């Protein structure tokens, strides 16, 4: 079966080869989700070319090709052209028979194996890539690995041989469990499941290619089956712990479905009939990748020779004798239905290992999604849904109870792997093979957990807090495993593999009854009053079991009832005698075990209440998971409901009353009451409401009698019967738009209210604003904030507008709202708090000032570290507490050694001297910790800038009445003990600037300028270590051949007090080596004229020896400035020669740092 286009290739004897295609026409029955197999073919083409029996056929879905081979070894490649299949290529090796052919996943390569051991790998265009002979081996099967890197061959002796895609042998493993051992050269071991004699022939081999993803990570996908019925499912060729299965069949064929989630295994199996006779029958078994048995299907005929899946996995084709049977498969989707309208279902995409769980409200079309890893099962009851999943590390499993919009409300972890789950209104039951966990998740102050098994009659309660990571009870392992459970608010039913049915009472979880069944159900369900149980086995046989003694019941099994081919059962939630089943592609509704006429349907039953079955087409939803499938949910009325509507339309209310008297039901009486109301027969309507116990309906009749106008009565009745459009039309026809508006207000249809008002409804502005606000609430609840803003603006709902703007992060609009509100509006404080939460200090402060809360404004500035603003507020509003707050915070920061934050605090509060002093301390710390010289220079520059700012603020405030700021500066000055740094703030920055400049000039080759700059460092011995300074001078002067200067530097180095004796000797030795070779003489330098006295001086002299005038130093080059015209920085007041600084954009001393660089306020680590 071509999984892409739907073509079916059929090969038979005498060269018979056909290509079939099923018609895709949709009949009216498909409105109920019918997916039954079409009965006619849209194409039936016979392909001629083979003479012998066609044994192998394989599709290339990517290139739309069919490859077939017959018993004579002839291989033909067929291609589709204009809707017909034509022969493209022929090949015949004329030596042996082709036993198997497989295309790789992308359809580029095909592997062909022959019975005599020959292997050929070809390309899609017909070229041979390589070929080889596997000597003395009968090859039967071949499979590509999912990644296309390996080929797995199955032999006639049961061996499996693995080759890479270049034909190089990798490993061989034997299919005999008793003989399996370590291969000495390959170091590889694998246990295959075979009979002890090792003579079983390989029957089938299938390796899922992963083209449509995996249902979970590391899922088994390689299936190997032997003629003795043993089946092995592995994760890959290296899996040493495969799932081992005995199918009890022979003549086996296997095939994975298109998603690798179900393995179909067909063969002949001995089945015992009702007379006790055993007879072989064709059976198809369905297994999960983990080796769990799912279902079996008995097929007429003598032998199944081939099986194949449809692309979507909803049908399977079986070649039986000379027939092809098509069977519908109903996937066991992870889904459930609860809260009257909510469908929760899970799906996974090929690119994801997580499962996507969707909570879909079928009434409102709202969808909420969650991604869950290792999803195991979904079940629900009433208003809650339980999802069971595995933890990330696999050590535990997680139980999560969700509400109708997908929000988790309770979560618990357990230490064993659950296989079954059931939920009631307040309880959760989880079962493994031998443990049942009972969790009352609702209506108890302390949750409790209990565990039980077949050997324990008592219940062990343990508080959940005491449960850490151990088994609830140490249960003795048993082979009589649990096969299914079901629960209600009062009963828990447990079935074991032996057919024993246990009945426990809830919530005490005590054993009430124990029944023995001659039946092995895999699914059970309780009716609405817990008096009857439906039992469904793996072959689709449905039986009923009475928990109460009834006449005609033998052993409580109802012998008169049995249905076959059932795959879904649902009890009515409001009638214990009604239930609905899905039997093949037909829906049956039973009342008192009497079936109604079947309805063609293949949907899954969601709900059965009010004599109406609700089904959902999960197959269609899973095909298109990204969008809402139209008409996926179908409501099917029961026969009684349909007949009642017919009687009402043809015979009237009186006959309908007689009809309902014979089969009373609240839904039927409700319909009769509504029909009586429509003809204004209040007496019959009142009787019907009494019969269905509808007090609200009786009150409605009383209200109707108050109207004197029959037209108004009919309009109200239409509204009561949910015929709102008709009711509105009646009011408008009566020229009573006010009543039409009132109707829509009662309905909560505010969109229509606005339309009616705009159409001339004639109402006040207050109602219109109310309508706008309700529409805004509609979008607000859906988290569509932008649309909500539009309607809240029209409704003047400033409170909700503020919320929406805050969520949308539209702070400008939020600020506009605050500006437009009056000072006494309570909303202002809420808006201010919102600004504080997002760090918008100025906006928050403006609002606090507007409402007169100065203390809150100052506290906001303090919290957001805006001390400058805080000081300004304190000055303007005479707020005295700011000093103590700042002092405490600064002391706290210093106690935590957070000096950089303290610097920022002092700076923002205009405590300039304190910030400068801290910066000088940080510079000293940086020197001691041997940080980079550039970092040290930056800190000194920052300190100097703070001193300059101190002088600027002092000058600006001198003579002015800025009491607060001036007071802070005065206090700052008064508390500082050492003021030396205020007089020469740039001293440290100059030292490291010249130190860096000298080295930069030296390494750039400008040695003369480097020496001039280095000589300036003699004035900074208080900042830089003298040893460092004179070592640098000695180094530069030596390379500049100024040996006299170098000699003086060595004299200084030898005379340093801090130098050790060893250092002095090393200096003396180095000086001796230098000056025995070079005389301590400096060459004559360049001379220039003094601008004051015009005498000649050296260009490196910083003062004139004749007139004793001092020249300023160029901050760019380090040379003295003798020119009268030069540049002076307005920040640091340092000078530079015009030709030196002309290529720069700012002063080189100050440009290394800016206070806007926030990263400098962090501890330096460079």
Automatic annotation (TrEMBL):
Signal peptide: none annotated. InterPro entries: Beta-prop_IFT121_2nd, Beta-prop_IFT121_TULP_N, Ift122/121, TPR_IFT121, TPR_IFT80_172_dom, TPR_WDR35, WD40/YVTN_repeat-like_dom_sf, WD40_repeat_dom_sf. Residues 668-756 form the IFT80/172/WDR35 TPR domain. The keyword Thylakoid does not apply. Residues 335-637 form the IFT121 second beta-propeller domain. Pfam families: Beta-prop_WDR35_2nd, Beta-prop_WDR35_TULP_N, TPR_IFT121, TPR_IFT80_172, TPR_WDR35, Zf_2nd_IFT121. WD repeats lie at residues 47-78. Residues 1112-1150 form the IFT121-like zinc finger domain. Residues 983-1082 form the IFT121-like TPR repeats domain. The keyword Repeat applies. One of its GO terms (biological process) is cilium assembly. It comes from the Eukaryota. GO terms for cellular component: axoneme; intraciliary transport particle A. It is found in: Cytoplasm, Cytoskeleton, Cilium basal body. SMART domains: WD40. Its main location: cytoplasm. PANTHER family: LD29485P, WD REPEAT DOMAIN-RELATED. This is Uncharacterized protein. It comes from Batrachochytrium dendrobatidis (strain JAM81 / FGSC 10211).
């Amino acid at each position: 079966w071509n999984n892409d286009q739907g073509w079916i290739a059929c090969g038979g004897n005498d060269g018979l080869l056909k290509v079939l295609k099923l018609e895709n026409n949709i009949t009216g029955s498909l409105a109920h989700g019918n997916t039954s197999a079409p009965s006619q073919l849209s194409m039936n083409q016979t392909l001629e070319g083979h003479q012998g029996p066609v044994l192998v056929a394989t599709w290339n879905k990517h290139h739309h090709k069919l490859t077939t081979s017959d018993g004579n070894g002839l291989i033909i490649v067929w291609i589709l052209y204009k809707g017909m299949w034509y022969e493209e290529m022929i090949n015949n090796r004329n030596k042996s028979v082709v036993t198997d052919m497989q295309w790789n996943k992308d359809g580029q390569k095909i592997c062909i194996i022959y019975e005599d051991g020959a292997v050929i790998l070809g390309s899609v265009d017909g070229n041979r890539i390589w070929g080889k002979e596997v000597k003395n081996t009968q090859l039967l099967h071949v499979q590509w690995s999912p990644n296309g890197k390996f080929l797995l061959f199955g032999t006639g002796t049961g061996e499996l041989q693995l080759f890479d895609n270049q034909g190089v042998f990798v490993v061989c493993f034997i299919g005999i469990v008793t003989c399996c051992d370590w291969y000495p050269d390959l170091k590889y071991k694998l246990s295959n499941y075979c009979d002890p004699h090792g003579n079983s022939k390989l029957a089938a081999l299938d390796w899922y290619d992963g083209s449509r993803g995996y249902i979970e990570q590391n899922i088994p996908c390689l299936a190997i089956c032997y003629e003795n019925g043993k089946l092995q499912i592995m994760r890959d060729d290296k899996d040493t712990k495969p799932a081992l299965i005995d199918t009890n069949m022979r003549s086996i064929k296997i095939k994975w479905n298109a998603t690798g989630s179900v393995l179909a295994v067909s063969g002949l199996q001995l089945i015992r009939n009702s007379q006790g006779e055993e007879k072989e029958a064709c059976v198809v078994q369905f297994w999960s990748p983990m080796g769990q048995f799912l279902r079996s299907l008995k097929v007429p005929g003598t032998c199944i020779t081939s099986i194949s899946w449809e692309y979507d996995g909803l049908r399977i084709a079986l070649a039986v004798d000379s027939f092809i049977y098509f069977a519908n498969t109903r996937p066991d989707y992870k889904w459930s239905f609860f809260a009257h309208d909510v469908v929760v279902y899970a799906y996974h995409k090929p690119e994801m290992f997580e499962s996507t769980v969707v909570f879909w409200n079928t009434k409102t079309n709202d969808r909420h999604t969650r991604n869950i890893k290792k999803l195991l099962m979904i079940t629900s009851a009433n208003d809650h849904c339980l999802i069971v999943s595995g933890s990330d590390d696999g050590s535990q499993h997680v139980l999560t109870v969700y509400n109708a919009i997908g929000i988790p409300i309770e979560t618990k972890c357990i230490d064993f792997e659950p296989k079954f789950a059931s939920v009631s209104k307040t309880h959760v039951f989880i079962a493994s093979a031998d443990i049942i966990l009972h969790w009352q998740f609702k209506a108890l102050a302390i949750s409790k957990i209990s565990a039980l098994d077949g050997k324990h009659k008592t219940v062990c309660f343990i508080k959940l807090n005491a449960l850490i990571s151990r088994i609830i009870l140490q249960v003795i392992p048993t082979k009589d495993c649990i096969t299914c459970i079901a629960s209600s608010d009062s009963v828990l039913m447990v079935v074991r593999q032996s057919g024993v049915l246990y009945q426990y009472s809830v919530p005490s979880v005590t054993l009430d009854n124990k029944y023995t069944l001659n039946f092995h159900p895999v699914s059970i369900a309780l009716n609405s009053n817990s008096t009857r149980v439906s039992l469904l086995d793996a072959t689709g046989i449905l039986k009923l079991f009475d928990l109460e003694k009834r006449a005609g019941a033998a052993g409580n099994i109802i012998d008169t009832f049995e249905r076959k081919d059932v795959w879904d059962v649902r009890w009515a939630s409001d009638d214990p005698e009604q239930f609905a089943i899905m039997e093949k592609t037909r829906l049956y509704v039973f009342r008192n075990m009497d079936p109604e006429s079947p309805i063609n349907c293949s949907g899954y039953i969601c709900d059965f209440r009010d004599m109406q079955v609700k089904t959902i087409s999960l197959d269609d939803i899973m095909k298109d998971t990204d969008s809402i499938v139209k008409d996926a949910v179908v409501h099917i009325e029961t026969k009684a409901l349909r007949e009642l509507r017919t009687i009402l339309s043809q015979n009237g209310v009186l006959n309908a009353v007689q009809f309902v008297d014979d089969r009373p039901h609240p839904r039927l009486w409700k319909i009769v009451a509504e029909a009586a109301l429509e003809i204004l027969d209040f007496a019959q309507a009142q009787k019907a409401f009494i019969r269905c116990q509808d007090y609200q309906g009786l009150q409605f009749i009383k209200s109707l009698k108050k109207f004197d106008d029959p037209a108004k009565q009919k309009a109200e009745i239409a509204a009561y019967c949910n015929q709102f459009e008709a009711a509105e039309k009646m009011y408008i026809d009566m020229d009573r738009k006010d009543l039409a508006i009132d109707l829509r207000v009662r309905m909560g249809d505010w969109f229509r209210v606005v339309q009616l008002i705009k159409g001339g409804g004639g109402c006040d502005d207050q109602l219109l604003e109310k309508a706008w606000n309700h529409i805004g609430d509609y979008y607000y609840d859906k988290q569509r904030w932008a649309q909500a803003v539009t309607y809240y603006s029209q409704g003047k709902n400033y409170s909700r507008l503020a919320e929406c703007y805050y969520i949308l992060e539209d702070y400008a609009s939020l600020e506009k709202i605050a500006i437009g509100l009056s000072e006494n509006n309570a909303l202002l404080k809420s808006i201010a708090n919102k600004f504080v939460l997002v760090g918008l200090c100025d906006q928050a402060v403006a609002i606090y000032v507007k409402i007169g809360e100065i203390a809150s404004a100052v506290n906001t500035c303090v919290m957001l570290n805006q001390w400058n603003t805080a000081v300004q507020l304190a000055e303007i509003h005479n707020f005295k507490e700011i000093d103590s707050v700042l002092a405490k915070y600064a002391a706290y920061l210093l106690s935590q050694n957070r000096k950089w934050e303290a610097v920022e605090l002092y700076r923002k509060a205009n405590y300039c001297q304190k910030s400068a002093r801290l910066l000088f301390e940080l510079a000293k710390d940086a020197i001691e910790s041997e940080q980079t010289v550039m970092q040290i220079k930056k800190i000194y520059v920052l300190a100097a800038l703070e001193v300059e700012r101190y002088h600027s603020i002092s000058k600006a405030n001198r003579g002015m009445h800025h009491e607060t700021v001036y007071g802070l500066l005065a206090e700052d000055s008064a508390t500082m003990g050492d003021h030396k740094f205020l007089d020469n703030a740039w001293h440290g920055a100059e030292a490291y600037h010249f130190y860096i400049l000298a080295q930069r000039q030296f390494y750039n080759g400008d040695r003369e300028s480097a020496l001039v700059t280095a000589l300036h460092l003699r004035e900074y011995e208080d900042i830089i270590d003298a040893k460092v300074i004179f070592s640098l001078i000695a180094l530069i002067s030596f390379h500049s051949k100024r040996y006299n200067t170098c000699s003086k530097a060595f004299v200084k180095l030898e005379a340093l007090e801090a130098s050790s004796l060893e250092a002095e000797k090393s200096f003396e030795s180095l000086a001796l080596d230098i000056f025995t070779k070079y005389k301590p003489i400096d060459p004559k330098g360049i001379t220039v004229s003094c601008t004051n006295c015009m005498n000649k001086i050296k260009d490196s002299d910083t003062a004139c020896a004749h007139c004793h005038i001092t020249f300023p130093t160029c901050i760019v080059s380090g040379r003295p400035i003798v020119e009268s015209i030069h540049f002076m920085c307005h920040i640091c007041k340092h000078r530079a020669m015009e030709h030196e600084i002309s290529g720069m954009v700012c002063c080189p001393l100050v440009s290394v740092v800016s206070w806007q660089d926030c990263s400098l306020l962090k501890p330096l680590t460079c």
